[in-house]
Specification:
4 strands
Length: 200
């Protein structure tokens, strides 16, 4: 128990990595750990797109960067700030040895005739997929890797799916960058008392 609690407290979001590739057996271990997450009805709605090759990373980073540029321009953000943001995103994606696009599918989830229950079913798939992503990040930390969860695919799911030629029912939820750490980071948490209410 102590080891697990220490693992949870020690994990950090790492954004800079060494160029060393991630061995296939470690990638398989990460995906296996992710697949043991709990899920609604045990339907395991998660799907993983694994990206190791630079050409695919560059293709994805360029497509997402252009959409980011367009969105920021429509928000009237100054051009120099836009290019700084786009470049930072491009570097984060292309400099990671391994990318995993965390997706969900409703293929095996329950289907309801009314939109309210169907929305709840989709939310359960989202929650299940997020737990798989958490498992993956904890496994990465255990294996001496760094990882960082990027939410950008939520803003452009169709673009990500089209750029990577993913199946039509895969809904991109996150982009997780992974590699051997080239930085150390600290983090803090709000006092527990500010986040907990004990019900009498």
């Amino acid at each position: 128990m102590t080891d697990l609690l220490s693992l949870l407290a020690d994990r950090r979001s790492i954004r800079r990595y060494t160029p060393d590739p991630i061995p296939d057996e470690i990638i398989e271990a990460l995906l296996t750990a992710a697949s043991w997450a709990p899920s609604a009805h045990n339907r395991q709605p998660w799907r993983f797109a694994v990206i190791r090759h630079m050409e695919a990373k560059q293709r994805l980073a360029a497509a997402m960067g252009q959409r980011l540029r367009d969105d920021l321009r429509s928000d009237n953000v100054p051009a120099d700030i836009i290019e700084k943001d786009v470049n930072r995103s491009y570097q984060r994606i292309t400099n990671a040895p391994l990318l995993i696009i965390l997706c969900l599918t409703m293929q095996d989830m329950d289907s309801y005739p009314d939109p309210v229950r169907q929305q709840h079913e989709w939310t359960m798939a989202v929650q299940s997929t997020a737990m798989a992503g958490q498992n993956l990040q904890l496994a990465a930390h255990t294996l001496g890797l760094g990882a960082c969860w990027m939410c950008a695919p939520l803003f452009v799911p169709d673009l990500v799916r089209h750029t990577l030629n993913l199946p039509a029912d895969w809904q991109p939820q996150a982009l997780i960058t992974i590699g051997f750490p080239a930085e150390t980071r600290s983090k803090s948490r709000h006092p527990l008392a500010t986040r907990v209410y004990f019900v009498d």
